[in-house]
Amino acid sequence: MRASVGFGISASVTALLLWGACGPRDHGVDDDGGGDNANPSGNASSGNGFQTDGASICGAEVHQAQSKYPLIYFVIDRSGSMAEIDPESGATRLERVQEAAVDMVDSLGSLVRVGAAMYPESSVSSDCEPGEQVFEPTVGAGSDFASAIGKAPFGGTPTAATLTAMAPIVADFSGPRAVILATDGAPNCNLNATCGASECMVNIFGECPSGNCCEPPEGTPGNCVDRAASILAVKALADAGTDVYVIGIPGTELFSGVLNQMASVGGVPQENADTYYYKVDDLGALAGLFKDIAGALVSCTFDLDDAPEVPGKTNVYFDEVVVPQDPENGWVWVDADTIEITGDACQQLKNGEVKDIQFVSGCPTVLPL
């Protein structure tokens, strides 16, 4: 049951583990997350059944582990309308999306592989160029991710062309993967599109003096809602095994039809809601939505690089706090070298509450009190 991607343990933590002493410990429950045995991450273990085993991790046999890093690939609309101000925060729509994406990376970046593209690409004169990858998929993206997506609003909304261009990059990664498409409007910029006035964005916004403002010579088909091509681009990703989450932020109100169609073929339409796409009216809720999407893909199963030498002397640590072996809320052996995190402990991982997870042998396995 081996996975192909290594789950890293920092050098500083490894050194601590190798020097850790084995001996009798007071396995009292850390009720308030404070005192000498406090969780260094600041995550209280109260109510989760986790226990401290003293000043250091116990055991000298450190197991490197492998897990599947799901790919979370952001495709972010940076079109000119993303410069609109969010009245709740005073920031632009684009800044709120950027903040939410960075928040997700800060919480779950060590458990997922994150990449990003933004559209349109702005190094040429056209404002309808397909987007470009701005951040190569990486585990532990950190501050580099924030810098990479820190672009300014610009241009049109070539959604279909961008999704098509990014599809080979996304498909190159095996295992669970998802595209998070965040936009504030309808796809456009397709010069090969044709549409009537009801699908012409100039007409939809009430800015056309007469007729169909997407018809030459006065108008351009680039202002048509690029419905068919965008639906096909999303469907192609889904058919290749990539879930596509369509996120519509303020500005999409007039275009719920095309976003619903895109979401319905993306493999993960919203359930029990008014729309198939994820309609976000409060931009303060974006970070939580991004975390929920990424967390759902985080794996709670880890393959150790070697089986423990002695049965019953292995422990799992979240941020240096021991997690009892417990099938309901802790961890269990799946086979001789595979551990599955269970219950609330698994949920802590998925919620991004755990910065480091360690697997160490050499001291008796801690069981629930």
Q: What's a concise summary of this model?
A:
By secondary structure, the chain is α/β, with parallel strands linked by helices.
CATH architecture of the largest domain: 3-Layer(aba) Sandwich
CATH homology superfamily name of the largest domain: von Willebrand factor, type A domain
How would you describe the shape? elongated
Number of helices: 9
The tally of beta strands, per DSSP, is 15
Q: How are helices and strands ordered from N to C?
A: EHEEEHEEHHEHHEHEHEEEEEHE
Unreliable segments (pLDDT under 50, ≥5 consecutive)?
Answer: 1-49
What's the pLDDT, averaged over the residues?
84
Number of domains: 2
Strand order of the largest sheet: 6-5-4-7-8-9
The CATH C-level name of the largest domain is: Alpha Beta
Question: Describe it for me?
Answer:
There is one protein chain. By secondary structure, the chain is α/β, with parallel strands linked by helices. The protein folds into two domains: 6-67 and 304-361, no CATH class; 71-190 and 226-297, von Willebrand factor, type A domain (Rossmann fold), CATH 3.40.50.410. Helices cover 25% and strands 19% of the residues. It contains nine helices and 15 strands. It has helices spanning 11-19, 93-108, 143-148, 159-171, 201-204, 227-239, 256-265, 286-297, 343-350; strands spanning 6-7, 61-62, 65-66, 71-77, 113-119, 132-139, 177-183, 243-248, 278-279, 301-304, 314-318, 321-323, 331-335, 338-341, 357-361. The strands form three sheets. Strands 6-5-4-7-8-9 form a six-stranded mixed β-sheet, with helices on both faces. A hairpin with a 2-residue loop joins β11 and β12 (321-323). α2 packs parallel to α8. The longest helix is centred in the first third of the chain and has 16 residues, at 93-108. The chain is elongated. Mean pLDDT is 84; it is low at 1-49.
